[in-house]
Amino acid sequence: MYKKGIIAFLFFLVFTNTTLANNYVEKMLDNYKFRYIKYDLKSEDYIFKIWVNPDFWATDLRTLMEDNNWISAINWVFFCPESYSECWWKNFTNNERYVTWFKIWTSVSTQDRVVFALDKDNNPFLYQTNKINSDKEWDIYYGFANFPLLLQDWVSKYQDYIDLWLIDYKMEAKMQRNFICSDTSWKYIFSWYVSAISLKDLPDLLIKLWCNNALNLDAGWSSAMIYNSRYIIWPGRDILDWVIIERKWLDTKKLIEFSSKVKVLLEKKLDKVTYKDQLEFLNNFSDVLNKIRSSIYDKNSINLFDSETWKKTWYEINIKSLKSLENVYLVNYLNKIVYELKLKYSEDNDQKTDNEDLLF
Prior knowledge:
By secondary structure, this protein is of the alpha+beta class. The chain is built from 8 helices and 19 strands.
């Protein structure tokens, strides 16, 4: 019934000049699953940025991405969320943040927090008042402070924070962790998530992952990662600040506007049919979208396997073509619209729908 319309859309998507650029990686190491976004700081195709909301203005990550032409993002500093009574029902942080040389802070200095910084030429370095690169604060173009510092020049710094009585029970517990690190080439920055690990066990693993400087970031309900407009980790609250990436020459607003027009056409068509037909069409449409995305990822991924067990230990998505990037962004955004329509029609018909999300 609906195959002709879906095939027509597929033809449009594949042959329209519309693409991606940053890399997504999943890796197994010592039975821990790492998920991360890899930023090439020397690339001419995309831009690494820090985004800072003023205190009290935590917002939805996807909405900000739609408004600012971003494609991927991850949360970073610790902040006091308005849902906590001890935060006086306001969102704020004491952590220093730097955006295009401008310092935003509520404390006099970094104190026990360490800044993960970039200079104007995108060279990463650490800064801490009177302790680490104390003469380089004016070189910070983008940066943010957090703790604990996990690695400095390949050396674990976790014990330093134990000695200062700054490690609490949450840091000692095994839970999902979020951190950022650079490699020795000064070419790459990695924003990582790893599940069910204590901070004390993390530095040794980071060394195996070729991190030389690494800083702990916020996790828990604040955990949020979007890759190519699609949530990999869904936050439990609005977020204060992000590390984001923008692809040059990619106009996401054009893709969002097109998706909105598709939504209007879908609603006009589906409002006239039964609930059963609505779900059938939307499920078929989603299947087509997923096949397109899988095809692009398959053509632009690298898999590595353990030499003894032949189990896949990691894979990396590396999409270089702008057209392919646009297609993936559009597919992910249209899948979001399909999900929203399924929720709408289910609610209109007093039906329950699967608790789907937009993750990989």
